[in-house]
Amino acid sequence: MDRRECDQEQLLVELGQSYAKALIAGDEVAAEHAVRDALDARLSTAQIDDEIIAPALWLVGRLWARGEISIADEHLATQISLRTLALQREAQRTTRGREGRKVLLAAPEGEIHVVALQMVANLLRDGGYTVLMLGGDVPLDALAESAARHEPEVICMSATMPSASDRLTVAIHEIQKSWPGAGYVLGGRGISSRLRPRPGIQLCRRVSEAVETADAMLKRADFN
Ligand code: B12
Prior knowledge:
5-stranded parallel β-sheet
């Protein structure tokens, strides 16, 4: 077993224990928490079903057979598990809903810091988006041309250097001339107070806000 498999095995054991404890306590919130953690850790539906939910229900069955919990406790544990199955389906539906929706990522010319942008790309890809990562130091005309060619619904850009902030504004202006259909998700410590959020342009402080912000942008576009 390699390191990754070992970590995953350990995580499954821990989440399995938390989930079982939650079922026995009749604690729906704690049970959902365990399943959300499993989903966040990218455990598969099969792993969650076979190695977290099923063993916990077997334990509940054994406790009931030994007279340690009541039939009502067993029913409650079952209802909680049925709800967590619905939660799993909902998470999959959300991911599928993002399939085929394109997000383009770039840092404008002169900006070579791209670690945060790569994190955003990973999060979006994991969330089901189709990701087009152009990387750092992308000339403005090349950026506008790429946007016009690929027609992404969302464009994520990053500015770490203070000088890059105004270039984001110019980039948006340039892109809008050739591809007006995108919303913008911007981040980075270089962003100045001159760049203000407005409809179609959102600022994020953390990479973890990117997926939610892109989702909100698409929802808005769908309603228009
Ligand atoms: C790694 C690094 C580099 C690498 C970059 C490699 C690469 N390919 O990315 C190298 C060595 C090449 C480099 C070069 C330079 N760097 Co440098 N670099 C850093 C360092 C150490 C880490 C930056 C980083 O990756 N952070 C990790 C990420 C995850 O965090 P973050 O960028 O802050 O992003 C957070 C948020 O801002 C937000 N976010 C950011 N972008 C986005 C985008 C979206 C869409 C979203 C949703 C969120 C989001 O999410 C993150 C948190 O969740 C910082 C130190 C520091 N204090 O930041 C200096 C730093 C940024 N660099 C600095 C400088 C000065 C330079 C150079 C000019 C140095 C030189 N004289 O050559 C050059 C050229 C820079 C240029 N033209 O772009 C300064 C900037 C100072 C300033 N504000 O003016 C810093 C702060 C170092 C310092 N203390 O002086 N650098």
